[in-house]
Specification:
- By secondary structure, the chain is α/β, with parallel strands linked by helices.
- The chain has a domain of about 70 residues.
- The strands form 2 sheets. It has a 6-stranded mixed beta sheet, sandwiched between helices.
- Helix 3 crosses helix 4 and helix 6 packs across helix 7.
- The two termini are about 30 Å apart.
């Protein structure tokens, strides 16, 4: 049994009278865990539930031994949403100092976060003039303020070129190697191979959870996308 960082039991989320997540059970351990599935399958809803900002209709979400969103987790969970969480008209340092004050983080955490995302030397640059990959790293730096035990990232590599995506995944593994569990979502199946553990999601259900190698072996395929399609067919539905 893995040492769970996140434990979810019977999670139910309803939107517009329709269940988005209906009785979801899963566990997330240390390292880099990828949540992969097509757009609209419920990934963002699940991540919002993990960080405690989603209204749920039933079930429990426990994070680091505490109920999701509870005050003891305020300094222990970092979260980066799909939309930009930083101000384009401020410099890198101004953004981080602002969020450090808002989050009640010590001033020393700003330099630590900048170093962690490899933006040393960009302190004085206005965020709106940075490249897409650098802007994503500024958002990551905000999420890392205070050295969280869990980092939750909602499609942080969307729209980036392959080189920038590769660099960000290398960063996720460095962060995990320093002791922070990373839960990252994506709809790009080729990113699955970069994860320690995978959660494959479709229509609000987790259809597989294991290492990339184990999921491919289970499905009898050479790649995760093929495994996803095979698992969907076995479940009796056409792939979205």
């Amino acid at each position: 049994m893995m040492n769970s960082v996140v434990a979810i039991d019977g999670l139910r989320v309803v939107r517009g009278g329709r269940p988005v997540l209906d009785g979801l059970d899963l566990a997330v351990g240390p390292g880099v865990t990828g949540l992969l599935g097509p757009s609209g399958c419920g990934k963002s809803t699940l991540l919002r539930s993990v960080v405690g900002v989603q209204r749920v209709a039933g079930g429990t979400v426990t994070v680091l031994g505490e109920p999701a969103g509870s005050p003891p987790l305020r300094d222990r969970v970092g979260y980066q949403t799909q939309s930009s969480s930083v101000y384009d008209d401020l410099t890198v340092s101004e953004n981080l100092r602002f969020f450090a004050r808002v989050l009640g983080r010590p001033a020393a955490s700003v330099e630590e976060a900048v170093t962690a995302v490899d933006l040393t030397g960009h302190h004085g640059q206005v965020v709106g003039r940075l490249s897409g990959g650098q802007r994503s790293r500024v958002g990551l730096a905000v999420a890392l303020l205070g050295r969280p035990d869990l980092l939750v990232l909602d499609e942080p590599t969307v729209g980036l070129d392959p080189v920038l995506r590769r660099d960000l995944w290398a960063l996720f593994h460095r962060i995990a190697g320093a002791g922070t569990a990373v839960l990252v979502s994506s709809h790009v199946m080729d990113e699955a191979e970069r994860c320690d553990q995978l959660l494959l999601m479709r229509e609000g259900r987790i259809i597989a959870q294991d290492t990339p190698a184990a999921i491919k072996a289970q499905a009898g395929t050479d790649d995760v996308e093929g495994a996803f399609l095979a698992l969907v067919e076995r479940a009796g539905g056409a792939a979205a």
